[in-house]
Structures are given as structure tokens and as C-alpha cells.
Design goal:
By secondary structure, the chain is of the alpha/beta class. The longest helix has 24 residues. Bound molecules: calcium ion (2 copies).
Length: about 325
């Protein structure tokens, strides 16, 4: 009898173990099958956490279907190095396709000061693609090969991406990518984050052995006048449409310029807010002070539309417009 019961318990435990291991082998995300025709859908922070934890999927296809705000939490890279005491990369590179869908991942921290290959993606390998993605970490800290988007682009293709946020490391540190190696390709990307490090440090990339084209970094906000690859521009130039159109950037299906001379290019499907009427993308004191400068204006709707301050199209600038800013306060 006891033997029988023990056998049943064993069977239950065995099945439970099997289902657990199935869970760790492939993610479910917000749907999709991980193929090119039917990519896994990333639509919530939990989906990204699942991707971080599921190395078996790092060769699959993904699409981001919304802007994600991580609320300031610390995350680890996808395709991270698993052995800090051995030089070189140990672990699984990202060789899949991550299409940002014109959306943004923002408001997270990556804090691995004693680790190499540090970025949203640690190492992008052969066949790996990251495209149409904005990356806005609060800060990224690592040791060797550190970047906002990727630590080490070994042989991957990175297209139409941007990275903001501070990046700090020791060697091979860049605002977008720590090192672009071998057949790695970076096209139509920019970086604006403050970059700091000891050796081979650059506004866009720290080290480049391959092809970087049509890409830029902000020499003022990055604090870097040099980069391995890319073209350095002032903030004013980075907020000028022709800087990018003359480099072949696609402003009909990939990028948009919300406010030339005030903001950087943004990805076309980034969320927009009614209260975002001035300055950089997002609703903050700049928008509030812009509203206050136009406060009390009447007869809006003419040629200048009260300079965008009549948000609710009521014909004047007043409480109704302030409510829009209050409602969207600090959204980005
Ligand atoms: Ca704004
Ligand atoms: Ca109004």
C-alpha cells in the first residue's frame, strides 16, 4: 500500500518537474510562435522578463507591440556572459530577430560593474538582428564591452535604433554599443547618453572593426567628442531633420520628428501625449512653463494656433489645457 502511494507521489512529482522544465525551455509571452511569420509578442514588462530568463528563445523572432516602462527596476541583459571569471564570452548570444516595432523600452537600470558584455543585449551573434527600437535606460554599468543597446555586436545587424541614458564601464564603452566586431553592422542609429570609461570609450561605440553607417551621437549630452564609428553632432544638429534625412533615414515608416529644433527623432509608434507641447518628448516642467507663457491667449485657431498651447482646441489657453498637462504629467 505504502509503496503504491509513494509511486503515485513520485509520478505526480515527476510530471510536475516535466512541466516546470517545459516552462523554462520556451516562453509564451503575449502570444505568437517565435517564427518570422508569427513572432513572439512582447507587450508587457513581464514578457521582457520572460525573454531574459529563456535562453532557448534567443534565436527566435520577437516583436515589441507597446512602449514598456520598467519603473526603475534593475534588469540583467538578454544574452549575457555567464562566467565573469573567464575572459571572453560564455553564454548564449542573441541570434534571433528583435523588432522593436517602433516602440521603446525605458526606465530600467543595468548594474553589473564586475561583468563584461553589458547592455540591453549582452552579445548579438551571427544572424542576430535588433531594429526599430528605442532604449532609454536610467543607467547601464558594466566592466568590458558596455553599451546602452548592446555590449558586443559580434556579427549582428542593428538598424534604426536609439539609446539614451548614462553608460559607464571600464574598457570598450559606447552610448549605443560597446564594441562592433567582425561582420557586425550598425545602420541609422543614434545615441545621446552620457558616456564614461577608462579606455576605448565613444559617444556611439567604443570600438568598431566593421560597418557603422548613417549613425550619430550627441557630442554635448554624451560628453564625448569622439567615437569609433558614427558622426558626432551638436544637440541643435541632432534636433534638425535634415541631419538624418540627408543620411537616408526613413521618416515615413520608421521615424518621426515631433518638434524640430526641440527634440530628437523618435520612433514612429512611440506613444504621444496631448500634454506634450514643447521641448523634449514627454510631459514635464518645460511643457508647463510653455503653457504658462501662452496663458490667457484668446482667438486661437488662427495661423499659429496659439503656438500649440490650446491643447483642447477651445479657442483660448486656460484651465482646459492645463488639465491636459496635469493628466499627462511626467508621462513619457
Ligand atoms: Ca515635452
Ligand atoms: Ca484651450
Amino acid at each position: 500500500m505504502n509503496v503504491q502511494i509513494n509511486k503515485s507521489i513520485l509520478a505526480v512529482v515527476f510530471c510536475w518537474g516535466l512541466s516546470l522544465s517545459a516552462l523554462t525551455q520556451a516562453g509564451t509571452y503575449s502570444g505568437g510562435g517565435g517564427t518570422e511569420a508569427n513572432p513572439y509578442q512582447i507587450s508587457a514588462v513581464n514578457d521582457w522578463m520572460e525573454l531574459i530568463g529563456t535562453s532557448a528563445d534567443w534565436k527566435k523572432h520577437f516583436i515589441l507591440t507597446a512602449d514598456l516602462d520598467f519603473g526603475g527596476v534593475a534588469i540583467t541583459p538578454v544574452a549575457r556572459d555567464t562566467n565573469p571569471s573567464s575572459s571572453g564570452f560564455q553564454g548564449t548570444a542573441f541570434t534571433g530577430v528583435f523588432d522593436g516595432g517602433g516602440h521603446v523600452l525605458r526606465n530600467f537600470v543595468i548594474n553589473r560593474p564586475a561583468r563584461d558584455y553589458v547592455g540591453l543585449f549582452g552579445q548579438v551573434g551571427s544572424g542576430g538582428q535588433v531594429r526599430n527600437l528605442g532604449v532609454e535606460p536610467l543607467r547601464v554599468t558594466g566592466r568590458l564591452y558596455v553599451g546602452g543597446l548592446c555590449g558586443y555586436n559580434k556579427e549582428g545587424t542593428i538598424t534604426s535604433c536609439y539609446a539614451t541614458g548614462a553608460v559607464n564601464g571600464y574598457w570598450n564603452v559606447g552610448g549605443l554599443c560597446g564594441e562592433n566586431y567582425s561582420s557586425g553592422k550598425i545602420t541609422s542609429c543614434y545615441a545621446t547618453g552620457a558616456v564614461s570609461g577608462t579606455e576605448s570609450v565613444g559617444g556611439l561605440c567604443g570600438v568598431n572593426w566593421s560597418t557603422i553607417s548613417g549613425s550619430f551621437w550627441d557630442i554635448q549630452t554624451s560628453g564625448m567628442t569622439t567615437s569609433a564609428g558614427g558622426t558626432g553632432k551638436t544637440t541643435a544638429e541632432m534636433q534638425t531633420l535634415s541631419t538624418f534625412t540627408s543620411a537616408g533615414w526613413d521618416f515615413s515608416t520608421v521615424w518621426k520628428m515631433l518638434r524640430e529644433n526641440e527634440d530628437y527623432p523618435r520612433l514612429i509608434w512611440q506613444e504621444e501625449f496631448a500634454g506634450d507641447i514643447a521641448g523634449l518628448y514627454g510631459v514635464d516642467l518645460i511643457d508647463l512653463s510653455y503653457l504658462s507663457r501662452h496663458w490667457g491667449l484668446v482667438d486661437c485657431g488662427g495661423a499659429d494656433d496659439c503656438g500649440r498651447a490650446d491643447i483642447d482646441s477651445s479657442g483660448d489657453v486656460g484651465i482646459g489645457d492645463l488639465l491636459h498637462i496635469a493628466n499627462d504629467w511626467l508621462k513619457r
